[in-house]
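WARN  no MSA supplied for this record, continuing single-sequence
INFO  ligand: fe (ii) ion
INFO  echoing inputs
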Amino acid sequence: MVTPTRFFNLFFLIMLFSFPQSEINAQMMVQSQSSSVFTLPELGYEFSALEPYIDTETMKIHYSKHHKAYVDKLNTSLENHKLKGKSLETILEMVMENDEDMSVLNNAGGHYNHNMFWKILTPGGGTQPSGSLEDAIIKKFGSFDEFSTKFVKAATGVFGSGWAWLSVDKNNELFISTTKNQDNPLMKNVVKMTGTPILCIDVWEHAYYLKYQNKRADYIANFKQAINWDVVSKNYESIK
Ligand SMILES: [Fe+2]
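INFO  complex generated
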């Protein structure tokens, strides 16, 4: 008599020998690698959601083409690399500025930076900082307006492609900094001013040129209207 258990075992053996061993090994490898493969995160809102500050077409290309390319190239550059399997934050802390790591450095930075960029923006216009972040901004910069002026000046002054940041240093002090290319303040072997970022602005031309052309200052002024200060405040709280 064929019991359900015997039937299952027989079915399993038939299935096992129905597939070439190489195919079974390949499937197991894909499963074992999945935990170290980086993926494009959910945007969380529509491409049109940040209108009129950031236009739909720019959002579509920026997210679907530029950010996706950083993710894909990061995965490719980590194949057979000593940092494969590490968290994104660990990779950023460990990368060096040399030929071997340049692709990992640029694409890990591109992935991390854009992850934060999408999260600190909000549909429907920005809010204002509150609570302990508001207190910290006033303590460091004197007022929110003074912080805002300094942040805009930093972002406007980035030569070529790069980013401006508001970060927290090892003494829990806020600081504004800028980085070139896809560098960021977590890259302690690469940048001078290191800390944990809580706010960023992308000033690569791909972030604004379709709508603003060469008017970076107009883009920055409108970007400020779309900052999600609730998320920035949570970023700050998570560091303290
Ligand atoms: Fe970008």
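The radius of gyration is 23 Å.
INFO  checksum written, moving to next record
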